[in-house]
């Protein structure tokens, strides 16, 4: 942008002119998802607008979800997602779901290791007093768009070495002969915390889905207890219903 782009008072308030220019730049592809915007001070110098006007324009774009602000690292063009229709009755993994859609999976590790279990992990996994838990915490992305934060807990007896997971947990379990065949899943609404919103590159407070999965082997043994936060605007869950008996 340059100073000659602004100043025509018949074109409406200056912050809306800036807003419009940025929307046009995104629509035309001049600004792409993930692009970093210059700091407010630099944009003010470039456009000849005051910092207050620049801030107002940016705030309006953040509110409408076109831009994302991450604490400490600045303002970015948001990733817009198409809704993914996801069948609820099939026990699939993130990697399998994305492969079926022809999308590439990327996982950012937040942590992984062996820990002393928390009470809810003891309950869900049916652990004994001296059992340890393997925790895997990842941000899962599809074609570069972060969609979910997954926190999986497994008994260390099922998965003693967290480092054997390459990209897919279910593929690793398959190799160990422990691929789950049944699961109970619970879904509830949540507003993303600032930290989770940061990890998913969306604005804090937007709708998210909290999904909990407990999966089992054929013999009834629990395999995983996974708590995930999914982007609320990215998924459309579908399930077939039968007439109640
Ligand atoms: C899915 C599961 C999660 C499982 C993961 C394994 C939901 C809500 N969660 O994302 O429980 O741990 O798949 O994926 O569906 P991976 O094999 O790609 O690591």
From TrEMBL:
Q: Which residues form the signal peptide?
A: none
Which keywords has UniProt assigned to this entry? Answer: DNA-binding, Transcription, Transcription regulation
Q: Does the keyword DNA-binding apply?
A: yes
Q: Which Pfam families match?
A: GntR, UTRA
Question: Carries keyword Cell inner membrane?
Answer: no
PANTHER family reported for this sequence? MANNOSYL-D-GLYCERATE TRANSPORT/METABOLISM SYSTEM REPRESSOR MNGR-RELATED, MANNOSYL-D-GLYCERATE TRANSPORT_METABOLISM SYSTEM REPRESSOR MNGR-RELATED
Q: What is the protein name for this chain?
A: GntR family transcriptional regulator
Q: Which organism's genome codes for this protein?
A: Paracoccus fistulariae
The top of its lineage is: Bacteria, Pseudomonadati, Pseudomonadota, Alphaproteobacteria, Rhodobacterales
